[in-house]
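Pasting two entries for a bug report.
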Amino acid sequence: MVRVLIADDHPIVRTGLKQILADDPDIEVVGEAENGGEVIEFLWKNVCDMVLLDIGMPGRSGLEVTSEIKQIKPNVGVLILSIYPEEQYAVRALRAGASGYLTKASAPIELLQAIHRVSHGGRYVSQTLAEILASEIDRHSEKQPHEKLSDREYQVMLLLASGKTVTEVGQSLNLSVKTISTYRSNILAKMNMKNNAQLTFYAVENSLIK
């Protein structure tokens, strides 16, 4: 039996996932969480084999939560389920310790297959992600500008590049405008850019957003 914790800040998504997992007699949903703090608290108090984790929860991002899970419970598998396409976050998620990455557009049967593969110690990589990983290996060893960003800076960069204002980004991540402004300044400095328009052009040119 694979004991799964579902972590997503949208109740309707958690309900839908529970219905999908209920179709598999070898999977048991042992809990729910709507933010990173609840995930960590649950894992300290309960036995769990895998966390089905949304990457875009309020507060700490799924990437940060993944890293913490692997520090405190290294044997618990993490399967990221996100609205964001693989090219935006999948490589970072795997580096953070996730064993797989699926978009929420994936078919239910693919989700069940991924859970079973991860539960047996494997990794779940879609064909799209496999191609991205291959290109990462083939690329010159020098880091691209966006790879110099921390996970949180990268998250903020994508939101700014998609056209969101500093205020909107702060609301989305549950962070203050001052904090987002500081992140923005650091991002522009690290990427040697001057404004959001340059961030948008860069993100589109590198297929980070569409």
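Entry 2 (this is the one that rendered wrong in the viewer):
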Amino acid sequence: MIASLNFLLAFFFSFIGTIPPGTINLTCVQLGLEKKMGIAWRFAVTASVMEYPYAWIAVEFAEWITSSPLVVENMQLITAVVMTVLGILTLWMPSTPSTITTRISESGYLRGFILSVLNPLAIPFWVGTTAYLNSLYWIELSTPLRLHSYLLGVCLGTFAILIMLVYLAKKIGTQFTQNSWLYRIPGIALIVLGIYAFVQYLF
């Protein structure tokens, strides 16, 4: 019973936590607009699986992470850099693709792995979420079964929202096939979010 509740709560918070724009979900939107469904599925699977170690680190090392502001600040800086660079690449790649960028772009697994590794803000998110749920006594992670049911919920919640975004973007892209600017929206959004993250980090 407790393991099931852990799973459901982790699924719910993972689902809603992945809705705000970020490198992972905007990439899914981009792939959906481009109708690259096979790549999108592989990307979503890899990105979801990568949530598992991040959530585990958050649970196991929550006290150390929260006691070191430098760690969180550096994560924000990394995210700012990654978002800005990916936004520029997303806008630039269609006209001047290189062998490396093409390989990464066409490999859902590799693309998902790289973007997930460069997205460490998942750790502070799960530190905060886990601490909040623990404070309300809604979850219990004292046994391996309960812990891993929680982590499984994290992965599947992320996967569910990513796949939903892919198919919603595909539907929108189908209706506006002649609008080339539509396909540039994710890249522009990443640049804007990257600049915003830089401003937050600096000020």
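Dev reply: Rendering is fixed now. As a check, the viewer should reflect this: The first helix runs from residue 2 to 17.
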